[in-house]
Specification:
- With 273 residues, the protein is mainly alpha-helical.
- Helix content is 71%, strand content 0%.
- It has helices spanning 3-32, 50-56, 59-92, 98-109, 117-126, 133-157, 161-169, 174-185, 187-202, 206-211, 220-223, 236-263.
- The chain is globular.
- The N and C termini lie far apart (56 Å).
């Protein structure tokens, strides 16, 4: 087969893959603006913003978005702080069984969090954390920590040790060095860890669905289910509008931090001079 035919085949395959990813997003936008949206992809006969108005005028939806933001932001902050503190000794000190410990953390990142939901449910029932937003935050934080520690440790390894030594010679303590020297230099890594944790929490359906029972405590990820009827009927228009609004926090967070993430580590010459 000639090189031209090979290139043409590659372009065809890539175009098909691109369309497969693009079509659901196109449907989402068109259905959200359609008064009679269905599962078929077509231009709306009557364009409207009524689906967005209906979603945003519903107090239950607004409460769900607020609860979801609280859970995601608090959990992400906890994971960043705790994993940063846990990654420091793993990155800087020669510890016994460190390699075994890191492999254990890597193994735990592969475990699905839903696999232990039954014993967690019984434990939360015993300590009165069931139907508690605090309990959901604690569970999601604990399940995200292995991957957070793994990420933060690898990012911290990229910070030159000479800068830390210079700060300690100037009289800075360990916490001050971590906060004033290491954290600013590994800010892209902190952004990656925060966004990864936020996205995982914001899109988590099963954990809050199982651990929360009060309707006013349910986050937006669970309220999305309200548009699926009991007999197979689906309100496609409001569902599409809700989905677009639901995706905005993750998109906005990525846009705000993409400059920091794209910079990466340029610390090769940071210790010079």
């Amino acid at each position: 087969m000639s090189e031209r035919k090979v290139n043409a085949t590659q372009y065809v395959v890539l175009t098909i893959i691109a369309l497969a990813f693009l079509m659901p997003h196109v449907w989402l936008v068109l259905a959200s603006l359609d008064t009679n949206a269905s599962q078929a992809l077509h231009l709306p006969r009557h364009w409207t913003l009524g689906n967005f108005t209906d979603v945003l005028s519903n107090a239950r939806n607004l409460s769900g978005f607020g609860v979801g933001l609280v859970i995601s932001l608090v959990q992400s902050s906890i994971v960043v702080v705790v994993s940063g503190l846990a990654a420091y000794p793993l990155s800087r000190y020669h510890l016994s069984y460190k390699k075994t410990f890191m492999y254990s953390i890597l193994f735990m990142t592969a475990l699905p969090m839903i696999a232990v939901i039954v014993p967690v449910y019984k434990m939360f029932l015993s300590v009165h954390l069931l139907d508690s937003i605090t309990g959901v935050i604690l569970y999601l934080s604990a399940s995200s920590l292995p991957y957070g520690i793994w990420l933060m440790k690898n990012f911290m390894d990229g910070v030159p040790f000479e800068l830390e030594e210079a700060a300690k010679i100037e009289g800075a303590g360990t916490l001050a060095t971590l906060k004033d020297v290491i954290a600013p230099l590994m800010f892209p890594g902190i952004c990656v860890t925060f966004i990864y944790t936020f996205s995982g929490s914001w899109g988590n359906f099963f954990v809050p669905y199982i651990l929360l029972s009060s309707q006013d405590k349910l986050p937006a990820s669970v309220l999305l289910y309200q548009y699926f009827g009991q007999h197979g009927t689906i309100a496609y228009g409001p569902l599409a509008a809700f989905s677009i609004i639901y995706a905005l926090p993750s998109i906005l967070l990525y846009i705000l931090s993409q400059n920091y993430m794209s910079k990466g580590f340029t610390l090769a010459g940071a210790s010079k001079g």
